[in-house]
Structures are given as C-alpha cells and as structure tokens.
Amino acid sequence: MPGDGHGWALDEDLRQMRMALMGIVQEASLARAEIIHTPFWQGLSVVHPEILQKAFVIAHADNPPFFYLKQPDFLRGQEQVDLWVARSQEAFEQFHTLRLPVTYIPYTIDEKLFFPIVDKKKLRKKFGIPEKAYVITNLHRDSEGADLSTPKFQKAPELMVEILEELHARGVSFHVLLAGPRRHWIRCALAKAGIPFTSIGKSDVEGDDFGINILDRSILNELMNAADLMLIPSRWEGGPQSVMEGAACRCKILSTPVGVARDILEPLSLYYSKSEAVDRIEEDQKRNILQPTLEPQWERWKRSHTMKRMEKDLQELYQELPNNASFQKKSVASHHSWLQAQQKQIFHSLRNRICKKKLPSHVGWNHHAGKDRDIDQIFWSLCKIIKDLNISTRPADGSGIEFIGFPTKDLLPSQKSCSRFQWITSSTPLKSLLQEASIIAPGVQDIVNLRSAGLLNSAMVLPLPILSNQGLCEEPLIILEEDTTASLTIWKAMAAGRPIIYPIASAYYEQVFHGGFSYQQEEEIPMLLEMARKEALRLRVLAKVPSRESAQKAIKQLLEIIAIENKFL
C-alpha cells in the first residue's frame, strides 16, 4: 500500500518497511495478496471490500487510536484491520484498552540520515542564523492545509507562540528557526509579536507550499544541529519523528508528553503547561539544565528506534504470522479467484475516481423521547444538522442507513444491507445497546467504559453542540478520579469557558487537550485550581468546543462513506 507520495513521513515509513522485509516477502497485486500491509490505514479505502475481507490486513497507526475514534472512517478500520502496528507505547496501551489486536513495533528513523554535527558555527553561517543566539526550532507543519491562516489544531502552534511571547516578555533573548511547508500561520504570529526568526525555504509562497518546501532530510539534520532546543507543543502525536531525529542529533528537546516523546525523553524534557515550559527554557539558558538529558535520550533512540530495530521486529512478525489464528482463517489462495478479485478492484478504483461523493436522500430514524434527556438533546441537534444537509428522515425499518437513540420497542430487526448507528451517553443502560449497531458517543472515555464492560461494537466519538448559550465562567471544573461518566459535563463546562482539571489516567485528555490541567494525585488539585483560575482566558483560547460546523462535517463524512460502501453490497 502507498505512503503519502510527497517524501514525507509515510513515504519514509514505506521505504523502511520495504527494506526491512526485502527477501522475506514477495510483493504482489492486491488481488493476489495473502497479506495487505499499509503504513497508513486510511489508505485501505481504495481497496475493494471483498479483498479486505479475504486478505490478512496489517495496518500501522500513525496517530494514537483514541484520536482515530473521532474519525468516521475508523468505524470501518476497526472491522477491516486484522492486526494493528502501534508505533509508541501510548498507542499500544490505547489499542489494548479498545480490545483491538495489536503488536508493538516502535517508530524508527534512518540512523544514516540523522547524527550529531560538531561545527554548529559553520551551520549557522550557512543558514544565516545568528551565531551566538539561543536558537529554538520547530520543524512541524503549523497551518491547516484547507486554510493556511488557521493554526493546525494537532500541532498547537498557538501554545508555542504563547511560550515564546512569555519568554520575550521576561527579557529572555532567543531566536526562532522554522523550516518545512505550511509555516504560514506561525510566521505571521511571530512577526506580529516582534519575535526574531529565520525561516528556511521559500517563504514568499502565498498558497499551499506542501509540494515546494518539503526539505531533504540531510538539510533537516543540519538544521537540528544548528539549534539549541527543539520545542514541540503538539496536542497529540503518533511520533513525532522530530523527537527521534532530535535525540539522534543530541539536540535538546522540550515536548508535551505525546506519542513517542514519552518513550524517549527524560522527565525534564517533558512539560505539561506553558509556565513549566517557559521556566525550563529560561533555566536552560542560565544553567544548561537540559544538557544531562542528551545522552540517555540518544541511548533510548539508538536502542529502540533505528531501522535495525524495525527490520528485526517486522521479520519476527512475519515469521510468527503462520501461527496466528486470524491469519489461518484468512488463507486467501484457495478461497477466491484472483482474476475475479482483480476485476472487482479495477471496477472499485474506477468508480471511486469517477463517482462523486453523494449523500443519501433519507435516513431511518428511531428514538424514544423522554427516556434520556441528554439523548433527547442530541437528537434535537442531530435533526437540525440532517435538515441542513437536505436529508429527510423516516421511521427505521431495518434497511438503509439508520440513526437510533434510545430504541423504541417496535424497532424492526436490521437487514444485511442496513447500516445502523446508535447514539449513546455515559448514562445509557447497556441493555438498551443494539448488538448490530455501530456506537457513537460524545467522548473517548465513554468508549473506554463500553470496552471495559465487554461491548466490542465498532465505535466512534462525535460530540454534538447540544447546549444553549451560557455565560462565560472562569471557575474550573474538577473531575475526580473515580468519575468516568463526565464526558457531557466536560463539554458543557468547556462551552462555558471553564478550565478542566482531570485525572491523568483517564481518557478525558482527548476532550480537554490544552484547555486544562491533569493531575496524578488529588493532592495536586488545589495548586492546579489556582493555576487554572489565573490562566482561564488563555486556556479558553486553547480549548476546542464542538460546533455545528464540526459536527455537520463529521456526519456528512460518515454518510458519504456509508453511501459509497452500499454501492458494493
């Protein structure tokens, strides 16, 4: 299966996979393959459903699965993938929590491409970087591809700018080094704040420069070696690769505790709040406090995140596959004609190219109003969104696409061609959940609760704006450790602008992100409460509350995916 086609992270993953398995496997067409192995699970949409049913599907997850629960196509990913490859311990733990089959093969980089360069002075001269400055770098895309003036939510460049602005306000001297495509937003933000920076690449490109400003990895290696510190503010990550690259270059790193950062970095290299990052950078300038982190971080990278490790792990995986029960059940060769499968795949590819995405004209509808107040509100909001999409509703009859809330007693059994989706909240009784339905919940913690109770239906998270306008409030909401039913409470509080204080071991981070603080022990709550009150305005800006637009986009995408699938039934 292909990568991204631009020489970016997925293409590099694909290249490493091929090298690791050279001489171990024989590559074939999709129709002939016993195994379909993809570096990017969402690429499976180009494969005919029958081929996916008969081949053993291995898929890498480039982001943690809790994040993918918010993607409509992950509903089918949960059903199509026979074995997930987690690239970080965080992702591995989340796959286990979701009861999905998983193996752990760490993210890797090519050790021949990233290494320390001693002559930093020469590198700075080459790129026009001030020789004696304390240089802070970030090499991530920071702008949304669809709107280059909008900060990319995953990468959280707003937090990075706030950290830099606070350093600037304290009189700390530094210089920012940027490179790579889609840096439009942060360049504008830094210029507006009067923060000095150097941008490598063609910065005069007004439109999307994704195909223009992707730099060769040898250049990225030089840039990391030219910097004093790599600053990573992301809300979530599968990698990022820059953590491994920075560790390989022995560059100091300061990162939010996401993805592979937790596997490689020392505790001192991880931060949980803006003030913590600012203090850490200021202290590093004064006393070089991050210098002792370099060797252990390099050792962890060398031990577990090189191509040699990937080669070992992938070859062991393939050697063990014949003993895998799911693999044995999906032995392809004797079960279908490859020629027939090839014809279906060609037809599938042509139809995907030619046919425009189309919404259904109607959906089936079933909800017993008055049983659950929250689901009543959800269905009221859902009804308005469906109408805005020019889709009508009719009583659910067990066929087509159906939206179910609290089911009525006269709900008809679903037929083979029926795609049934049931909206739930944390208070929905397990006995009212439909065995054949895909579950849609307001928060990741709700899905975790269902998995803990043994419910294995495919599931996704799709929060709806179910609330009336409320006045803003700066009083934080505190979620106690034993409370696993607070998803809707959190959305209501965030809609009112309230910071959230929540237990770090929960899945509430997937709602709150940088809109609050997490705690490990309840003794920390009073201190975090004071911090949250002081930073309420900033936390409100960093939060992301469900909107009518975001919900409509997700529902539209869900309906388009199901409508396309129904063409092949």
Describe the structure.
This protein is α/β, with parallel strands linked by helices and 569 residues long. It has four domains: 9-107 and 309-336; 120-294, 3-Layer(aba) Sandwich (Rossmann fold), CATH 3.40.50.2000; 362-465 and 550-566, no CATH class; 477-545, no CATH class. Helices cover 40% and strands 13% of the residues. The strands form four sheets. It has a six-stranded parallel β-sheet with strand order 11-10-12-13-14-15. A five-stranded parallel β-sheet has the order 7-6-5-8-9, with helices on both faces. The protein has a four-stranded parallel β-sheet with strand order 1-2-3-4. Strand 1, helix 2 (49-54) and strand 2 form a beta-alpha-beta unit.
